[in-house]
Amino acid sequence: MKPPALTRVADGVHFVNTGSANWTILTEGRSATLVDAGYPGDLPAVLWSLERLGHRPEDLAAVLVTHAHVDHIGSLPELLRRAPHAKVLTSAAEARHVRREFLEQATPFDVVANLWRPGFLPWALHIVRAGALRDVRVPAAEAFPAAGPLDVPGRPVPVPTPGHTSGHTCYHLPEAGALITGDTLVTAHPTSRSAGPQLLASLFHHDEPAVRAALDVLEPLPAGLLLPGHGPHLAASPADAVALVRAGRG
Ligand SMILES: [Zn+2]
């Protein structure tokens, strides 16, 4: 396993970037929250990142999901066997998606049809090796118990941002001044030739106009640090990042 980049970005907030998928670990004493979980093949890297922070999988009180794509929930079935206390939480719509009551994800056919694009072939080979074609579902996924800050380590506040998927959710960390943007707003992707705040390619979004509308939701949030689903973390406010996306860099 190539160790991912693990960065402490704020008190109790740790950002992990494998180069193709990201997750965030929120720690509070002996307890931790994991936000997203990489591809199926990222299980060793998820376990490594917890261990580096002095945590065992059993310490996970919750796993929050931004959305149910295989690069964000892939390691969960195996991880949950070792984390019996962890609740898997997301929005009501996305919980059904995580349970695979439906699937909103680019198909292998969509990907093959785009292999002519720069960067797609090496990316496709990488994700197949990482387990992207595996049928991943997490029956234990449930909806947040209520609106507002969640009673889990890090006290994240869910921000509904439907578009990339119908129940996509970002997470605001008011105390840390950080925003986990998931795949609503990213800072790089193996299939993108630009760096900095941007939207993923259209084929990855379930409803692209809704993704653009979701940017309006992120724009006013008070934060100075963005933790995206893909690409490096970025010291920028949501307003500045959204302005760059709208200016056509996205
Ligand atoms: Zn993704």
UniProtKB/TrEMBL annotation:
Coiled-coil features, chain-numbered ranges: none
Q: What is this protein called?
A: MBL fold metallo-hydrolase
Specify the taxonomic lineage.
Answer: Bacteria, Bacillati, Actinomycetota, Actinomycetes, Streptosporangiales
Pfam families, sorted: Lactamase_B
Q: Which Gene3D superfamilies match?
A: Ribonuclease Z/Hydroxyacylglutathione hydrolase-like
Q: Where is the Metallo-beta-lactamase domain?
A: 20-230
Source superkingdom:
Bacteria
